[in-house]
Amino acid sequence: MSAQPRTARGTRTKEAIVRAAETVFAELGYNDASIVRITDAAGVGQGTFYLYFASKLEVFNEVVEDLNRRVRHAMTSAAVAADTRAASERAGFRAFFEFTAQHPALYRIIRQAEFVSPGAMRMHYTRIVAGYIHGLTEARGRGEVGDIDPAVAAWSLMGIGEMIGMRWVLWGDDAASPGADDDPYASGTREIPDEVFEQMMRFIEGGLGTRDNSAGTHTEGALS
């Protein structure tokens, strides 16, 4: 576990190291990253690094936890004002895609974590999916979604968000024209186009069998 700063200046220094590590790990990968590269990017000496972290692996784990905390905060903050599960899904996914467009390191680092630090990867998915399961369970009790298994639905939603985000945000090339639908590198964008988002939400709402209580409508789907 990393050391906790004792001063406001120490907190800023540690945050600078974590942000620099996020960039270095995302750009170079864990194996090619080094503490020297991280400290150079953060503008601090190696001695300062070791005040807070014992190793490269320790700062990697801190980066995963930091990204996890920030993306969950973004999604929760966006969804908290929603008064139905359908609205919550829309707001949460919008926030997720906006976060990943600004922090593509999230995808790259979590994918590395499977091999570098499986415990960190497990923490990341567990925290997100646990919140999903809780929210879907409550929504099912209120009749806002169909008779679904919240765990299966939660993992399905995670998969949809990750693959749509990678196709249109992470792998997209905003300097190129959109290419073939089956080419992962041919989206021609760094953000989710509105028509893609709406198609995705139509699929999700149909699968969940979401009910908008304010409108009194119910979207039937395979899982409802």
UniProtKB/TrEMBL annotation:
Keywords: DNA-binding, Transcription, Transcription regulation. Residues 34-53 bind DNA. Residues 11-71 form the HTH tetR-type domain. The keyword Repeat does not apply. SUPFAM superfamilies: Homeodomain-like (SSF46689), Tetracyclin repressor-like, C-terminal domain (SSF48498). GO terms for molecular function: DNA-binding transcription factor activity; transcription cis-regulatory region binding. This is DNA-binding transcriptional regulator, AcrR family. It comes from Paramicrobacterium humi.
